[in-house]
Amino acid sequence: MPRPLGDPARHFWMTRSVARVMGLSLAEEMRCGRLEAEEYARMVTSCRGCPVVSSCESWLGRQTCIAASAPQGCCISATLARLRRRH
Residues near 75 by Cβ (< 8 Å), separated by ≥ 6? Predict the structure, then answer.
């Protein structure tokens, strides 16, 4: 059975927060043409269905500097890693 999707607003901000901790601005990535709106929407939707939301929130709360990667098990880690490599 598919897992229910989480709150869109919560996961929008979580997506942005994980990216920010990795040194990425998703708005800037879009402005520069490295991230399309549809891909951004897919990232948020993937985050909404992620099984590691609680551990992700804990990970976000522990970060004090730029992280080299997203938290373990993150559904959008591959996309974030790709965007980070393009910098």
Answer: 46, 47, 49, 50, 52
